[in-house]
Specification:
Blueprint (H helix, E strand, L loop, with lengths): L1 H52 L5 E5 L25 H7 L3 E12 L4 E6 L11 E3 L10 E6 L21 E6 L4 E13 L16 E9 L6 E9 L2
Parallel strand pairs: 3-4, 5-8
Antiparallel strand pairs: 1-2, 2-3, 2-6, 4-5, 6-7, 7-9, 8-9
């Protein structure tokens, strides 16, 4: 009898240990999924960045189903939509072709917060996975009007617009175009908590005075209920 009880107890302990090991392995895998995805996406972005900086390549073909960014469904504007209208994420994703072409406008660099990433000529679901994107129908670099640039507020430090919340008045935003022309904008206004439905007040091409840039990203970090806006004007 005691031997049977001991055998049952031993089997139960083995089962419990096995379940604990499986749970641990599942937890480790779940913890590693995001870092691995970020590393893969970063490697692709780095290769694109080198080609853009060398002016050796301005267009890139990428799969629309790869390298998704966590939280991208919370973005309010996409290049495929008229700005000022709510875009339906699932509908847009379902209608994407298997491959899309990304066209580089150049690069965007913000020395004060160590941002240096590709700047795409459209702010679409796919393009924002690999850099920042200029919102369609807003001004070109150096042009009169408001150039609106969207980017993801990644949780991972050093990724895309993660550090945008650390910017301060007086910081420089440097846009380098594919032809090598450099435009420097100096930050003079920061809106820390803008409701998504109020964004249309800030993204009109004629908004503000002179040659303006408006950077838009989600806030608070990891919550994304509002938008952070960084506004600067061209340094003549």
């Amino acid at each position: 009898m005691f031997r049977n009880q001991y055998g049952e107890l031993k089997i139960r302990n083995i089962v419990l240990v096995s379940v604990a090991v499986v749970c641990l392995l599942v937890g480790v895998v779940l913890l590693l999924i995001d870092p691995i995805k970020n590393m893969k996406r970063q490697a692709v972005t780095d290769d694109m960045m080198k080609s853009i900086e060398n002016a050796s390549q301005a267009t890139f073909i990428v799969k629309s189903s790869g390298n998704e960014v966590n939280g991208e469904e919370f973005e309010y504007y996409y290049g495929e939509e008229e700005y000022g209208e709510q875009a339906d994420y699932k509908t847009i994703v379902a209608e994407l072709p298997d491959e899309v072409v990304l066209t580089a406008l150049g690069t965007i660099k913000i020395p004060s917060v160590d941002i240096d990433i590709p700047l795409w000529d459209d702010a679409t679901i796919v393009s924002l996975r690999y850099g920042a994107g200029r919102l369609k129908k807003t001004a070109d670099p150096g042009q009169e009007g408001n150039m609106v640039i969207l980017g993801h507020r990644m949780r991972a430090e050093g990724k895309l617009f993660h550090a945008l919340g650390e910017m301060k008045i007086g910081d420089d935003i440097i846009i380098t175009c594919m032809d090598g022309t450099v435009y420097t904008y100096r930050v003079d206004t920061i809106h820390e908590m803008v409701a998504p439905e109020d964004l249309e007040k800030y993204v009109d091409i004629d908004d503000g005075e002179g040659k303006q840039v408006t950077l838009v990203t989600c806030t608070p970090l990891g919550v994304a209920t509002h938008r952070l806006l960084i506004i600067g004007h061209l340094v003549e």
